[in-house]
Design brief:
Distance between the termini of chain A: 23 Å
CATH topology of one domain in chain A: Amidase signature (AS) enzymes
Radius of gyration of chain B: 23 Å
Largest interface: A-B, 69 and 52 residues
Shape of chain A: globular
Number of helices of chain B: 3
Helix content of chain A: 25-40%
Radius of gyration of chain A: 21 Å
CATH superfamily of one domain in chain A: Amidase signature (AS) domain
Strand content of chain A: 5-15%
CATH class of one domain in chain A: Alpha Beta
Distance between the termini of chain B: 43 Å
Order of helices and strands of chain B: HHH
Structural class of chain A: alpha/beta
Structural class of chain B: mainly alpha
Number of helices of chain A: 16
Number of strands of chain A: 13
Order of helices and strands of chain A: HHEHEHEEEHEHEEHEHHEHHHHEHHEEH
Shape of chain B: flat
Oligomer: heterodimer
Number of strands of chain B: 0
Amino acid sequence: MNILELSATEIASKIAARELSSREVTAFFLERIDTLDSKVVAFTSRNAQALQQADEVDRKIQAGELSGALAGVPLAIKDVLCTPEMPTTCGSQMLKNFTAPYTATAVQKILDAGMVVLGKTNMDEFAMGGSTETSVFGPTHNPWDLNRTAGGSSGGSAAALAAGMAPISIGSDTGGSVRQPAAFCGVCGLKPTYGRVSRFGLVAFASSLDQVGCFAHHSSDLAATLQVIAGFDNRDSTSVNAEVFDYSASLGDSLLPLKVGIIREHLENEALDPDVRAAVAKTQDCLRELGAEIIEVELPHTNYSVPAYYVVAPCEASGNLSRYDGVHYGFRQLGETEDQPLESMIAASRSEGFGAEVKRRIMLGTFALSEGYSDAYYKKALRVRRLIARDYQQAFEKVDVLLGPTTPTPPYELGEKVGDPVQMYLGDLFTVGANLAGLPGLSLPAGMTEAGLPLAVQLQGRSMGEAKLLQVAHQLQRAGLFVPQVACVA
Amino acid sequence: MSLSRDDVAGVAKLAKLQFSSEELDQFTDQLGRIVSFVDQLNQVDTEGVDTMAHPLDVESVVREDQLADSLDRTDALKNAPKQDGEFFLVPPVMAK
């Protein structure tokens, strides 16, 4: 039996039927990590207890104490979620030696579901970036072409799947950090509605935009994973207190009537690569064959979403990251100024502990919130954010889901954009809107370029409309829009 | 708007970051370009539009103040760069 050919839910069924054990599956993926990760650099640390934990899960399953759609399945978790048994570094020098004293709610739910953590995955420092190149551990390489980026910020989580080093992974998405690496690595990635998954134990970047999301090869596995991690949490007062749907049960339900909106501004954008445009057209044809009605819609303020995002997110980040002061946890460096030893230590620790992109965003946010500028920048961006959210609201009066590209281009080469922040930010063109408006978005594979690089499309839905997105994605996959594939890492 | 080197140095002080002279030049250039880029927000007419700080209509969440377990001191102190088992230790606020 080739484990790589099984979906995560199929693995769980075979574990339940005792055709496989969680230990065997966990050992299989750990071995692949041992063999391949020196080339891919998807992991920042591995769980030394994984096999023992798999044994315990096997015991519970056999004793009838544990069951569930993903029981026994191993997975990888982005190094931004707190885990007391492994470091939580956020890809930063600042937290390189930090081990959280508590467990993130999403991680606890995963453990309660009987899943086994293989390790923590690489990311842009504090989730700020689109290429995983700002990590203190070095860049993650795209398994489809090791000279190219795996995307970011959750590049490690996406690459781990593409290289067959995990069947499921968890990421976080503040401006596209799940959807964009999913697109670049040829896997499915879901950013749920803001508040659908608890942020407790998710290291904060921009609190009104951050959301925990997941990656899988199969849309049905995304559904099963969301089922595990979603739900209200009294330790996150911004988590939504609404019932969690049975996302898996409705996957095969009739889609019809289904109205799909094509975002005019996204397809007319000059930055859009012809191959990506063709992938959207192919998906559109596929949806039409499934009986959907295709309607062109407008999001008139969508081209302002990147500038609005690059004010709002840095403003929130500058506040959130002020906690790193070298006092309670994290990196400390003593300063040189003798008359103010404490102040000097704080500035020295922050200056050494943070990398360039994090400092750029802290500076940008501090500037945009500073006296005399906050009306012109922060409040202006928040008004534009309202207009962007209204555009979506109006679009969803006409259609059930929106279809468009996830990224302007296929994955680019490592080093290509890292020196030019604005170019890097423009890569977020199609993804940041969903974060500003708080809506769910799903990236799914849609073929390959001639050079063998993954192409993808994005579906966006109504608030709390994950079930519909997953259903459409599942039926597109069933109709042959894409076949889950693991890259041959060479 | 354009940012001067002094503006950037002032922001660095607020952000509790320190830069070498070379870094300050680089940040002045990069932040200037980012600020010009976000200045395109001024093209949008936002007259009468409310700000949107959050995607949800967030309400203040209140609860009864109840006694419950919290982190124990050893766990809370274990990541501190310097501690004495009871307190976080920091350098003096002012020099002697």
